[in-house]
Amino acid sequence: MKKILLTGSLGQIGSELVLRLREEYGNDNVIATDIRRDENNKACTDGPFELLDVTKGEDMAALVQKHRPDTMIHLAALLSAVCEAKPQLAWAINMGGLVNALELAREYQLQFFTPSSIGAFGPSTPKDLTPQVTIQRPNTMYGVTKVSGELLCDYYFKKFGVDTRGVRFPGLISYVAPPGGGTTDYAVDIYYEALLKGEYTSFIKEGTKMDMMYMPDALNAVIQLMEADPAKLKNRNAFNISGMSFAPEEIAQEIKKHLPSFQMKYDVDPIRQGIADSWPNSIDVQCAKDEWGFRAQYDLAAMTKDMLDKLRIKLNIQG
Is position 155 annotated as part of the catalytic site? Predict the structure, then answer.
């Protein structure tokens, strides 16, 4: 990667990935785009930024012609709970935007990355140590778009030779960007509420294990995969990756080690609980380890300490 165009740059991943890529490749070589502008977000102010609606292919093509990137990182998408509320819009953005991006990658011979998700699995998928290649029959619109995206990226690689790459992200936890409508967002909210209120009401019930990853590990994974030797990539577009797997009561127990008075309550949201129940308890990441050396650095304990430390600074909380 030398010059990179990103879509969805103000989302949970994009807000941090843009800054990390600019550190690695130079501010002027990372062009951030989103459907809106936020002058408080460094992705808009610390380097090139363009407004872009990814459903408008001609506008996307104009930006590629203007900036001449060699790489496109396509992040623009609606997340799981939002997709269930607005399925038609989800298809238009998640799939329509992806087709537009892939067509430009084909036409301009761009290296291409787009993330999939553990949401690409479904109720009939093996729950524990879910294999890299397994049955994928999701029962959510989000999952349908992610499986379709995986297949479409495979098609563009095999049919047109586009250098497509991707990972199946688990729930991502970060102190930088606010939650964006995902089923795993409780694992972000809980740290804020623990510090601000001393308690948290989870919309996911006890015992519901889901894979998670701390954002620094996720950002490293994207760069590592994109810089990997293509000859070693057998799976390419949907590598299982994860940092940890836990249930709500386990993250609460870890927080109590730092905030002993913290209290956990439950008010289960049936929509998001249903989505969570359709996902794996844990996934097998061996292919990512073998093919491009993936390794997560943070476990639940290390992540919890860092999240609380960073949020105390961000929220100006003493002690």
Answer: no
